[in-house]
Amino acid sequence: MAEANVPAVVPRQWTGSDHAGPVSAQLLPVPDLAAVHSGPSTVYRIAAVDERGRIAERAVVQALEWGPGQRVRFDLLSATALVLRPEPTGLFGLTRRGHIPLPVPVRRWCRVQAGDRVLLAASAQRGLLAIYTMAALESMINEFPLPNDGGERS
Fold it and tell me: In terms of domain of life, where is this protein from (predicted)?
């Protein structure tokens, strides 16, 4: 079986420098995440990334009305979040079974490995899929800490 080279996924505002980690917030603006996926037409799921970097979650794909082969573009929001949008000339597409691909450069950027779980937020209204790592979910949850005494919060 012949090996195929896969082109690299590069953040939209890449500086071209040899940078091993995430680009600083000055170089990659992060949009308001609440605006990305608010509304009643949003479908949320938590799914695992398989050994080939794919996510099998039919509910989000169906909510977006995407099908096998749907070409997508990756917009990296931060080191813990990204957005997929339909893009006819996108380098990557959904698999024949409709699984969502996470190419190696994207997985490295977000530090996602096989077996890791991610939060998917499919906004049918906006036609996009937000993917958050568990680190992003933990950060969101920490914004609303539980009371220490077990009592009610007002």
Answer: Bacteria
How does DSSP classify residue 101?
E
Instruction: Domain ranges for the chain, please list them.
Output: 39-142
DSSP output for 98-134 = -PEE--HHHHHHHT--TT-EEEEEEETTTTEEEEEEH
Gyration radius (Cα) of the chain, Å: 17
State the Cα–Cα distance between residues 53 and 11, nearest whole angstrom: 18
Instruction: Extract the tokens encoding 59.
Output: 């509910």
Pick 93 or 8 by higher pLDDT. 93
d(C-alpha 25, C-alpha 65), whole Å: 32
Structure confidence by residue, pLDDT tens digits, 52-94: 999 999 999 999 999 999 999 999 999 999 999 999 999 999 9
Under CATH, which number does the domain 39-142 receive? 3.40.1550.20
Q: What are phi and psi of 64, to 5 degrees?
A: -85, -10
